[in-house]
Design goal:
- This protein is mainly β and about 160 residues long.
- The protein is built from two helices and seven strands, in the order βαβαβββββ.
- The protein has one domain.
- It has a four-stranded antiparallel sheet.
- Strand 4 and strand 5 form a beta hairpin.
- The radius of gyration is 18 Å and the shape is globular.
Length: about 160
Amino acid sequence: MFGGPNQLAAGHFDEPPLCVACAVYASHACPMVAGRQAHYADRDRISEGHRGKTCPDPDCHCGGWTATDPDIAGHPDDPAHPWYAVYINPGAYAVTVYRKIVRCADKGCEHERLIVNGGKLTAPPLKVVLVSTPGEGRVWRRLAPEDWPIGETTCRVGVPS
């Protein structure tokens, strides 16, 4: 699972798990994960710009894209953080899902959405690797368990040696 220091500390990740090959690809392709950006983008989300004016669902009457969860603020121009790869056993996480009522910006109609937003660790990680740091870029350095930036809620008890 990929995440920053806050996600590791909480044991809750915003994205679903990746296979190793996809994680390596993402660490090259995504400028944030690769450590090539010093700050989060300060531009509008897709749903707020010109590309968000057309919904791909012809049966939808919303008139365009809406933010998946408008209550979650972005990180415009916040400083970038280190990225970590957390290796886990298959099934050592619970997918996190919740229901949300979202109002369309153009017509005001409401839609109930089931939002899948990542996963919560249910067992200690097998290993943690520092993927990148802002300014330094990709490092892919395995961390010793005592250096893992995780809290007690991340299942530190029983960490493999």
